[in-house]
Design brief:
With 290 residues, the protein is mainly alpha-helical. It folds into 2 domains: 202 residues, Alpha-lytic protease prodomain-like; 77 residues, Cation efflux protein, cytoplasmic domain (Alpha-Beta Plaits, 2-Layer Sandwich). The chain contains 8 helices and 3 strands, in the order αααααααββαβ. The mean pLDDT is 80.
Length: 290
């Protein structure tokens, strides 16, 4: 964690994301309906899905923060991956609704010219979504939170889809009535792609994806600096939401006593917990060598 305020930001950012997405969804749907902009309504549906996702993520972050207990010795961190899966399902359903509505518009040939207010509303939505993306991405990166990074990606997608809607509205004003509907199709396809990526990220987390290589290298380097460690026999890690659990097996001399071996293992555990960020727990086993 780079700054001490990152923890506080990580606690407030998901709340602002939920309320922000809710207000953005209402704003876009209302303005899009009044101005006849299919693309803006589609973007509003996207924001509504983002709001539901943010709510799941907010709840998941609360649960993930609970300390481990006898029934959950590894803690509750994996709930973040479950919230990511839920968010991906909402996004997929929202994209399907947008896509079907756009195809219906093409078939019926109804192309109402969007009002000028739709342009201003889209620009406002674009700026707002980008600010939410910057806030969530910064907090999610510093806290290594998959749920918050998923929320950030949703805000980023919202910004990009707002750009597509804006281009569609400009095209409609220039005499291309289909441009707004085409923008709605582009929005739906983009959300489809993003929902699939989020779904795969959630699955990877639930099946114990390992920590990043740089974290593993730092754990190995820290362990080898402890007196009495002759080498690293094996290291396994798994991400538990914002935290990481490590199973480490170190090599020690077979000529020392059991008490000394235990002391070395304890020193390794303390060194890793103190020097490597994001470690929730570590199990240190020993292997005797000549």
């Amino acid at each position: 964690m780079k700054y001490n305020d990152c923890l506080k930001c990580g606690q407030t950012s998901p709340r602002w994301s939920f309320f922000g997405n809710t207000l953005a969804a209402l704003f876009k749907v209302v303005v899009g309906t009044l101005t006849g902009s299919k693309g803006l309504v589609a973007d509003g549906v996207h924001s509504a899905a983002d709001a539901m996702s943010s709510l799941f993520i907010l709840i998941a972050l609360k649960v993930a923060d609970k300390p481990h207990d006898d029934k959950h010795p590894y803690g509750y961190g994996k709930i973040e991956y479950f919230s990511t899966l839920c968010a991906s399902v909402f996004l997929f359903a929202g994209a399907g609704s947008i896509f079907v509505d756009a195809l219906k518009t093409f078939k019926e040939g109804v192309h109402d010219m969007p009002g000028n207010a739709a342009l201003l509303a889209t620009v406002i939505s674009l700026c707002f979504s980008y600010l939410m993306y910057v806030s969530n991405y910064c907090a999610g990166t510093q806290l290594c939170s998959p749920a918050m990074l998923a929320d950030a990606n949703e805000s980023k997608a919202d910004s990009i889809t707002s750009v597509a809607v804006l281009l569609g509205l400009i095209g409609a004003k220039l005499g291309y009535p289909n441009a707004d509907t085409i923008a709605a199709v582009i929005v739906s396809l983009f959300i489809f792609n993003m929902s699939v990526e989020m779904f795969l990220q959630g699955i990877n987390g639930l099946i114990d994806i390992s920590a990043d290589p740089d974290v593993t290298d730092e754990i190995v380097a820290t362990s080898l600096k402890v007196d009495g460690v002759a080498g690293i026999k094996s290291i396994k890690s798994r991400k538990m939401g914002q935290k990481i659990w490590v199973d480490l097996e170190i090599a020690v001399s077979q000529k020392i006593s059991v008490l000394e071996v235990h002391g070395i293992a304890e020193k390794v555990r303390e060194a890793i917990m103190n020097k490597v960020d994001g470690i929730s727990g570590i199990s240190v086993a020993t292997y005797p060598v000549d």
